[in-house]
């Protein structure tokens, strides 16, 4: 039996829609695999009651099929589904690493990105790889047409998850078809700033590059209390705040010394609109780890 811990991720980071992603130190899914004549899946842990065990409907089933690697697969969910922390992607990335090893397929982590993205196509209708790439490679990743670029980073973050859920599939329906040239120019500037900030591991520069006026306002409108939570986090010392993935999670970047205050301010702000939430005080972290 092989075991893999695959981290939650936060995609987009505001200015990098469908392009940027970071691996988070916590939470994570744990995937266990054993060879079997056909694929079976069992799911326990956070939100497991909402996750299908039918291999045709689960992201890990799509990965097993893509690698032609039937297995008995056990998923222990640490990443709650439909919260904006790449839950379906964490399972897919973990399964890709585990099954690649179990069947000695010899694919690199970079080559596993498109394999794991098959799982995302199954659940969100688009094979967006901005969650599976950081879950596989760790750090900060840029997914472009011609490949993935990765940089190690350890910027402190707070990921605050309200009890509500938003399906990525639904949240993709509100993404605008078009943007003005002014908005594009502004977003390119922010995205470039953010990428430099990650390369320098500097939360001030990362925070300056997180704003986006194209997709984020549409997504934020789906999250009750978003504006209050954002304002509270900035007031408490966050250098940048945005919707995590498709939401409803909210991601704040900050200096390590401000992390506790930022988390507490975000929890209080959700509470002030009658919504319970949970905050992960963490950092940009490592990718999927294989245990013998
Ligand atoms: N292994 C899995 N882990 C989490 N969700 C899964 C998995 N397989 C299928 N799903 C389905 O994917 C959907 C959640 O995916 P999505 O809306 O993209 O949110 P998230 O950002 O949390 O991945 C749910 O409908 C869930 O049932
Ligand atoms: N780029 C995707 C990312 C979705 O992330 P998730 O964690 O909400 O699944 C999008 O914005 O649709």
From TrEMBL:
User: Please, one GO biological process term?
Assistant: threonine biosynthetic process
Identify the pathway. Amino-acid biosynthesis; L-threonine biosynthesis; L-threonine from L-aspartate: step 4/5
Localization of this protein = Cytoplasm
Q: What is its EC number?
A: 2.7.1.39
Q: What is its main location?
A: cytoplasm
What are the alphabetically sorted keywords of the record? Amino-acid biosynthesis, ATP-binding, Cytoplasm, Kinase, Nucleotide-binding, Threonine biosynthesis, Transferase
What's the protein name? Homoserine kinase
Q: What is the lineage of its organism?
A: Archaea, Methanobacteriati, Methanobacteriota, Stenosarchaea group, Halobacteria
């Amino acid at each position: 039996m092989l075991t893999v811990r695959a981290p939650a991720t936060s995609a987009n980071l505001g200015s990098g829609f469908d392009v940027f992603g970071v691996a988070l130190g916590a939470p994570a899914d744990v995937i266990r695999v054993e060879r079997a004549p056909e694929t079976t899946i069992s799911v326990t842990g956070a939100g497991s009651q909402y996750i299908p065990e039918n291999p045709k409907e689960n992201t890990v089933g799509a990965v097993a099929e893509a690698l032609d690697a039937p297995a008995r697969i056990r998923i222990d969910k640490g990443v709650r589904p439909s919260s904006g922390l790449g839950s379906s992607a964490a399972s897919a990335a973990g399964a890709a690493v585990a099954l690649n090893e179990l069947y000695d397929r010899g694919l690199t982590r970079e080559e596993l990105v498109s394999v794991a993205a098959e799982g995302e196509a199954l659940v969100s209708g688009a094979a967006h790889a901005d969650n599976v790439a950081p879950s596989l490679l760790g750090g900060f990743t840029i997914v472009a047409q011609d490949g993935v670029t990765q940089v190690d980073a350890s910027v402190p973050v707070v990921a605050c998850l309200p009890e509500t859920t938003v399906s990525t599939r639904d949240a993709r329906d509100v993404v605008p078809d078009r943007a003005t040239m002014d908005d594009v120019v502004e977003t390119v500037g922010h995205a470039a700033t953010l990428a430099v900030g990650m390369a320098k591991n500097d939360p001030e520069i990362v925070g300056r590059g997180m704003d986006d006026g194209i997709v984020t306002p549409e997504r934020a409108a789906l999250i009750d209390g978003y504006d209050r939570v954002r304002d509270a986090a900035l007031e408490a010392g966050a250098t940048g705040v945005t919707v995590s993935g498709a939401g409803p999670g909210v991601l704040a970047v900050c200096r390590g010394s401000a992390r506790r205050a930022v988390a507490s301010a975000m929890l209080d702000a959700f509470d002030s609109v009658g919504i319970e939430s949970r905050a992960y005080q963490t950092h940009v972290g490592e990718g999927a780890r294989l245990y013998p």
